[in-house]
Each structure stands twice: as C-alpha cells, then as structure tokens.
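Exercise 7b. Backbone tokens:
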C-alpha cells in the first residue's frame, strides 16, 4: 500500500504537469490544485501507513524522495514555462530544482558507499512549505480578485523553502564530506 501511494504520486506528477502545460485554463489549474493536494496527502500517508503497519521497505525508502523530487521539479518547471513563476521568483525555484538534483546524486553516491542518509525533520518542514507554496502558485491563476496578497504570501513561502533547501542540502553535503574525510 505505501509503495502504491508513492507510485500514485509519480503518476499524479505527470497528470498535473500535463494539465498545466497543455491546457492552461482556470479549470485545469483548479484540477491541478486538487490533484497536487492529493499528491501531498499521499506523501504524508505513505510514510505514516508504512510506519504504523510496519511496512517500511527499502524500495519505499528509495522511491519516496524520488517521487517528491519528480513532483516538485516537474510542477516548478511547468509554472515557470506558463509564466506563473516569473521575475525574482524564478531564482528560488531554480535553487530548489538544483538542490533536488544535487541531493539525488549525493544520495546515489553515498548509497554506493553504504552510507545511510535519513530524511531530517528540517527536510520534512522544507517539503511541507514547498508543497504549500507550489499549491498556491497552481491556484493563483484561478483567483481573480485580491490575488496580490496571495502571490506575496506564496512568494515568501517559496523563498523560505529555497533557503531551507540550501540549508538541508548543505547538511547532506557535510555528511558526504565527513564520510569522504574518513576514507
């Protein structure tokens, strides 16, 4: 069940990105928002269910962060492509994308060295803030009135998640350096 939820998140990433890029209208953005929220719930429930029912697996530990990265990166690219994320907000989006790719490579490298890299609480907070910000950007085109304050709020959250991305990325990198210094 947990791995099914994780794979569902990957499938939802494809659907959401397609809706945003191919059909950029209010209905598609609203449907994408709902599906993105559903994807966020699968992110929470797959881990919770696995721990509660003692179904934590190595496959799940590998797939879960990959599904998160696919979801975040694909949606950010779609939002940039459709000019929902513009101007200075492209910078934190790129920081998040670069961090996700860097950490994936770092995890793969450390995995080959039998070094376990656990997800930290700060990383979970970062992911939560990213999901809230991204969901706000997906919903933004649907809202017609008083959207300035929503855009400001979700922009601040995006920048906060970018700062947290740098911090958590540095922590992972420091772990790798500590391992390399021991060899």
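Sequence design result:
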């Amino acid at each position: 069940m947990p791995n099914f939820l994780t794979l569902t998140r990957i499938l939802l990433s494809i659907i959401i990105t397609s809706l945003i890029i191919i059909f950029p209208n209010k209905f598609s953005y609203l449907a994408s928002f709902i599906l993105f929220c559903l994807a966020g719930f699968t992110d929470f429930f797959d881990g919770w269910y696995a721990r509660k029912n003692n179904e934590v697996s190595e496959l799940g530990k590998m797939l879960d962060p990959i599904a998160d990265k696919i979801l975040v990166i694909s949606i950010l690219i779609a939002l940039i492509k459709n000019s929902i994320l513009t101007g200075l907000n492209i910078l934190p989006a790129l920081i998040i994308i670069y961090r996700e790719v860097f950490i994936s490579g770092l995890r793969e490298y450390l995995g080959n060295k039998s070094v376990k890299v656990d997800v930290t609480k700060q990383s979970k907070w970062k992911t939560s803030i990213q999901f809230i910000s991204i969901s706000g950007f997906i919903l933004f085109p649907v809202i017609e009135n008083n959207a300035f304050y929503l855009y400001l709020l979700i922009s601040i959250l995006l920048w906060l998640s970018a700062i947290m991305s740098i911090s958590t990325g540095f922590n992972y990198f420091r772990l790798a350096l500590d391992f390399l210094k021991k060899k």
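Instructor comment: The radius of gyration is 17 Å. Residues 147-182 form the longest helix (36 residues).
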